């Protein structure tokens, strides 16, 4: 060990990371590790191929016309080299079309007589859905199609993977250099094993097509489009709704999607980004729960056990891979920080009140419905422990935490409130939790993915919505330990968690009066959609309790970690196995459809089915030239002979700005909520349309930034103080 | 001291008052609302072929515009809420496919009235219940909403009572200074029971293989209990008027239904069918856990071994399968009682012989729960006679004989009528030869995944899991290793080996390894599936396996118990999950058909005619017939100008009696084994039909009661002969 450390210390601290970075940049620039996918469109029996009848030829006697359909790919923007071998004695044609009106260049290619092999580059300007490469047999006596391949643009996925691996190695190197004992970090291995097993469905190229896959992939693409358009933070992206754009970022915070969106801009494939994000969620969940349990229970073995139980909790894995509810899954990854914050403000170090803010902000910036659920949990905790809080003078911490949370999230809250006041929102997502509450029986099932059929018993979810055997067993062991009479210091914390967890479980079930709650709250609780969403809070509470139960029952031994790990892995394997083997999916090289068929967060009057029309509607006598659209940015030249109205293929969200040769034009809402501009007679020049947002939003961004800086400073100072205090105690 | 005593019992009394208040006030009553009857996406919907809006201008015509939802509903008080607009008077007609009686058949919707409701009472279970909206008048009608509300059930009150009862027990223990730590191990058993009861923890229930039959029998029994009232305490129910659309059945006489008394009682207390079934399932598991714990404690005298035996038994695949794949309540009750029988016989042949009443009482109860009880008892006796050398002691053999006498005496009131009815030609079509359905050895090594829905060409495999299970087999392997390989055998080893041998004997029988003729002779055809022999075998095997696990982890008994629990739960999860997620679902507030094909009925009684459930006259002139009926009797008002035969909607069975204007008249058989009465010309005649046991059966009821009371007396005071001599030798030394 010392030898290793000596060698390491001879190298400058920045040396290895700098070399690694240089290597990555070289790989990225040279394209040596770039990845492409090639679709052999003539390969029989594949999902995406040319639908053409064998023997792939036609003679004049059989009639001329289009030979085929397909391949029906959903392609992200980029350049796609196409090669073919088509023999014919006449001049024929290749045509390129898509179903969403995206611009494909060239629109067609002539096949000269006698020329067998050929190629071109298909330039896809914006995401193209259901791309068709059609072979038109126009003249000559015969045509024979022998080969056709389409190749994707180069993707930098391998470079990113390499960067991540090198990043981890650099961290280990730095640890060695600083003299850290790696053996002490051995506890990370079982957690990493759990993360690996929880991430099994992500260790592949494709993404399963499950409940919310389309929506969340669209969020990534929309965010990347907003970033490419020069917005930060992004409020309106121009990818969703077939390029009409969506303000999903305003209503459904995508704060944690920025790394993924940046990767998309760095040429990563959307499927790769989704899979990487899911793995990251699992890793963050593991780390957050470890930290929380270590702090609450004061025991490393129990913390590792808690981390494993949480990472492999069937409901959490369901959120990631069965529902692909990435918002809720993100909130679940961060909610242990909230739990830790609650504990600090009730029984821990009151100076660490900011942890509650960090946890609450992270949840709010992940998922709104989770925020609603965890707000109920937080208020409940506050009310239950109010006497203790008052007795120990901990009240101020709660107020400080609430204030800090608001300031940290101000950049998100201000646009959200402004858009909400304009009548936008997600009224349609309201469900009937009283119809979706689950039977207590569901809590004791063994989840095996989602059911392909609707059950007659509506009180059973068609997905694994249970806490899982490992967590429940740990809770029973905790009860046994508590009943045994031998008390330990952290029993009370664990029992409090168990109590809260059981209450949350009951809220999920048909035993909770959801119908009455809906009436009492004027249907506010209907936004929860599914009563079983409270399982996220139940799991958060039950896992530390169960970990402590294992610790108490089995003692401080590696057996706890091994048994919880094995049991948890076995319990989730059917679910992950089923997801890996799922037939439906978005294959590598493709992207989800840009047609989100839900009217969430749209303007009144929106008709998403009209978004297939991507042309500019002109009423009056105006001429439009040099038109180009990139997401939310439109550039063109206009000349109006008389008063004219122009309706662009963008939704007229608040925040768009139009300039005609630097002169600002008024923007309003046209038919089907399209962006409308009125031109006066004689108006001419260069028209620029940009999403600029509002000035007050910039102010809220600034407040959040300043709060964040001050908070980091405060945390660093507190850390220093704590270290000094420890050193004094040690002395 | 007195004040403390009052304080202890104050809580239970208050709990009782709370339950009574909740029950009487109706505050916790539960009601099912079918609110989506007009939702086209819902399976349970009223079907509007031409849409919800009808208009003469658009070419629609007068008449019924809806049909469905074709529910099967239990008798009770229902409410319909409607939102229907029209410019003329229209109607909602209530129709059933089985012609169930109800207090109203239609409701008029006044012109212009948009929202309204009406109530009606179903006096009999209704099959194919329909809410038919009739467009009668005006130019248009618009149906916006239809809702049906079930009767109010007392399910939640009973749940509250159960929870409070448990809390009161804990409270009393606490007040008496008993520490909770003494019973902490119960949590592990409770966890096993919880997982074993998972499919019952919901509002509805799965329609398991025998659920239709069991619900029919339970309701039939409840009907009989309702008709007998307090007399049922002295004279058990033999006939009920529920099954076969009211044609009645002597199911209770032919098939022992002691196990069904609980759900039938819950029905009489106002619970729903689903709740009664689910509560019984859960209680069966809890009872199994308790009896096996007692049995293992009695044999091995080690707590953790007993806990392991209890967990193994509760989570054994065969028991779970019996409950949640086959839905066989009788057999489940037998399995719950089997450990007590095992302990009882153990006490007689190897333990404290003064405890022989345990065997007699549990054996009698077992026989009265299901036919398999006879089989179980037979197996136990075989084991006792073959495996226990101590029967050579005269008093042990004598006590065994005495116990069997009591078993026979207590069961006499069921055996004789059952034999009598079977001799009279009452058939149970599901019963077949015992030689069929023996399982392959392959079946014993499977991992059950619920009910197999496909078609087997191999009749030696069962639909549900009936195997001992991997965990039990592992435990048995440990027993063999421990007892054969080690020179010094640990205490209990011999018993474990004996139990293992007994279990293997049962498994051998389940595979058809015993002589067929012999098995048919011993079971008299009552046990119609040979693989059922695996049930009694499980009792022995779980006990033995628990000792095997104990021997493996004697230094860490708690850890071993935990491992057994985890593996046990793990192995049954596929079955419970599959049975929950099946679509054979009986929603809350509904019932299955009242015509299970394998319920006892007279030979030749077809089920196709039972929907004609009105009496009618054959022959005669100038006739009129009308009928009223309740649980006790059927009354038919009849007039006929000439001699005629009144054919009744009842199957003719021994015990049915008829009176014409108070004078007895003979019943005779009509087509389809219906009961009929030959009438003279009569005006305003009243025919009363009722069920009454034979006098000799009433005597037998008394004999059985006397045996039961005698056994109770022996249990409380001890057997005189044994009491004088004191504790017999070898009571615990053998354990």
Major sheet of chain B: size, sense and barrel closure?
Answer: 5 strands, antiparallel
The fraction of residues in strands of chain A falls at: 15-25%
| Total strand segments of chain B | 23
Helix content of chain A: 40-55%
Strand runs of chain A, count: 22
Span of the ends, CA to CA of chain A: 27 Å
Global mean pLDDT of chain A: 90
Cα radius of gyration of chain A in angstroms: 29 Å
Structural class of chain B: alpha+beta
Kindly state the percentage of residues in helix of chain B. 40-55%
Uncertain runs of chain B: 517-526, 724-735
- Helix run count of chain A: 23
Low-confidence blocks of residues of chain A = none
Strand content of chain B is: 15-25%
How would you sum up the global shape of chain A?
globular
How much is the radius of gyration of chain B in Å? 29 Å
Outline of chain B:
globular
Tell me the layout of helices and strands:
The complex is a heterodimer of chains A (731) and B (735).
Chain A lengths: L1 H9 L4 H16 L7 E3 L16 E3 L5 E2 L4 E5 L2 E11 L3 E6 L6 E2 L2 E4 L5 E8 L3 E10 L4 E10 L5 H21 L10 H11 L8 E2 L4 H16 L19 H4 L6 H8 L4 H28 L2 H12 L2 H9 L3 H21 L7 H11 L3 H17 L1 H6 L3 H14 L1 H12 L11 H4 L32 H15 L7 H18 L5 H7 L14 H20 L3 H23 L4 E2 L30 E3 L2 E9 L2 E8 L3 E8 L4 E5 L2 E3 L1 E3 L4 E6 L4 E8 L3 H36 L1
Helix pairs in contact in A: 1-3, 2-3, 4-8, 4-9, 4-22, 5-7, 7-8, 8-9, 8-11, 9-21, 9-22, 10-11, 10-22, 11-12, 11-13, 11-21, 12-15, 16-23, 18-19, 18-21, 19-21
Chain B lengths: L1 H24 L7 E2 L18 E3 L7 E2 L4 E5 L2 E11 L3 E6 L10 E4 L5 E8 L3 E10 L4 E10 L5 H21 L10 H11 L8 E2 L4 H18 L22 H4 L6 H8 L4 H28 L2 H12 L2 H8 L4 H21 L6 H14 L1 H17 L6 H30 L2 E2 L42 H16 L7 H18 L5 H8 L10 H19 L4 H24 L4 E2 L14 E2 L13 E4 L4 E6 L3 E8 L3 E8 L4 E5 L2 E3 L1 E3 L4 E6 L2 E10 L3 H23 L2 H6 L10
Antiparallel strand pairs in B: 1-10, 2-10, 3-9, 4-9, 5-8, 5-10, 6-7, 6-9, 11-13, 12-14, 15-18, 16-17, 17-23, 18-22, 19-20, 19-23, 21-22
